[in-house]
Amino acid sequence: MTVGQSAGWIAVAGLGPGDEGLVTPEVTAALAEATDVIGYIPYVARIAPRTGLALHASDNRVELDRAAHALSLAAAGGRVVVVSSGDPGVFAMASAVFEALEAGPVEWRALDIRVLPGITAMLAASARAGAPLGHDFCAINLSDNLKPWALIERRLRLAAEADFAMAFYNPRSKARPEGFGRVLEILRETCGDERLILFARAVATAQEQLRIVTLGEAVLEMADMRTMVIVGSSQTRLIARPGAPILYTPRSAP
Ligand code: SAH
Fold it and tell me: Among the four residues 11, 20, 138, 207, which has the most C-beta atoms within 10 Å?
């Protein structure tokens, strides 16, 4: 894409986990050229208002409408940035934009569309704690808004049996306060009480809080919607030292 060209474009951008220092220069440059920014209310709130920039904030249940709105603005000549937290391709707006593109008018397919990566919450949380994702791992969205709960349980059990470290997004919400308790039960059954689990809340913000416990000590209330949960593999361990310990998974399997 040639920045500054008159034709519209759309960039689906990741704002990283919170800290401005973790926004990529590529995303900052796209925002500087934008005529429109579209996204979920708290993410749009991170964008500084300026003359010539329209901010369109919407609720988080309207992803496909928001994506179609973004595409229609770009089709009309707008320079549109759709914002997600973290990375836009991880449980976020990039797939929603492509779903809307696939279902929408064929002219939309000629649009200049880019996905601009960001630092996803699991990588920011992992870096803060040490390197718990240093060997094979998987990422699971624990929200059952867009998939059946039975599928979440199946993937959880199979991942635990395969001895992956596991990164959980959307562990718990006001609408689903108890499901995470069931997740902890399944994990205790499959991984045992001694397995390490990290609760990383509001990483890279002023409210950041990290807590590392065993599955035997873990309780439902340790997670909320701003928490990234990482469960170690059987090899994940702690290095004790003055201050916070380091949580890491060695590179080699036994
Ligand atoms: N696209 C985002 C994820 C969206 S799903 C990304 O790549 O990070 C939203 C979930 O991400 C939250 O429920 C939480 O589990 C996690 N999350 C997002 N930002 C976070 C942060 N700063 N600290 C901890 N977890 C975060």
Answer: 11
